[in-house]
Design brief:
CATH superfamily of the largest domain: ATP-grasp fold, B domain
Distance between the termini: 32 Å
Shape: globular
Amino acid sequence: MRIGLITSDPGHPLLAATAALLAPEHTVRTLDPATATAAVDVPGPLADVYLLKARTPRAISLARALELRGAPVLNPAAATELCQDRTAMAERALSAGLPFAATRTYPTLARFAELAQGTGLPGPVVVKSRHSRKHDLVARADSAGRLRELAAAHPREPVVVQDFAPNNGWDHKLWVIGDRVFAALRRSELSPEGRGPTLPLAPDGLPPGWAALVRRAGEVFALDVYGVDVIDEGDGAPLIVDINAFPGVRGPSGAPQALAALALSKAGARPSPEGAGARPIRS
């Protein structure tokens, strides 16, 4: 089998470990979206499956072009793109009945700060960049003064705003690779102590129904490799605050093996004619 990695960082621990498992019997090639932005830039035959680890517009464009030539991509370009827009993400999740945090959108952080100055903050809020990317904005604001500080630093940033949900200060990081669910606890970056270490958590240690919930999220967003950030609002009541396409999945054992198995499974199911296109996002 031929496995393609769409990434600018083939040394990422998850990808490197997965490639090492596949390499003895299969061909693994890396496509850097910084230099290859269309399928015509891809020399030689198409891979049997591509793993879309990068989430930049150039990477998504490349993945979409490969899909149009009939190549399967994990995750599909459309699903990956949807998860980069937190407004669209919230709309899709809430319309599907997922317990997702209520989300409001503002054209700029400066505009939100201006409106909040007139009406006042109803309580602590979490401000996030609308467009998810590396080193994006995720911050808690408890006062108008804090909000003004954020607006001064990021005045033109399009943002989404969610009411801060009281919790114990720990995020549940849930990752799914194919039919495998992995879990960990990580101190929230919004906690006063700041982000802490990631603590492994056995999936059977999750509150009842949480594993089924994250699988449902994958169905809603047409994802095969993804992460769901969940907080416990009390008594095991889950609140989803973010969904990520193809996260790093650092820490849990067995993740590279699960990804290698998934890649080979999808490679074997590759449609033969070119132009078959990407699978649609299920609603």
